[in-house]
Amino acid sequence: RNLSKETHLSSYDHNVDLFPPPHACSSRTPGNRIVYLYTKKVGKAPKSACGICPGRLRGIRAVRPQVLMRLSKTKKHVSRAYGGSMCAKCVRDRIKRAFLIEEQKIVVKVLKAQAQSQKLK
Description:
Layout: H1 3-9, E1 10-11, E2 24-28, E3 34-38, H2 65-70, H3 88-120
């Protein structure tokens, strides 16, 4: 593209040099002017707190920290236990693991009671 012609015809909102910065792209307005649209940095959604899952959390806005600070609470977490910090799969696995451990404790307690009752006989 011919940058010298484009910079000559374009209008700036910021103080810039001869060439547009890398985060600016040119756009034609309805008034037939060429203006630069300045893009902001792309944010990232938080990772899962478990450290096992490689992806990012779903249902949470992927924005920069300053924008995240201004967001409402409902946009920063998912309405579930450990909503804003852990993914659903990890929460499900933890619940299953805790349930199975409790069941195992009950089985051990029952076996001890049976062994003690047989000793008394």
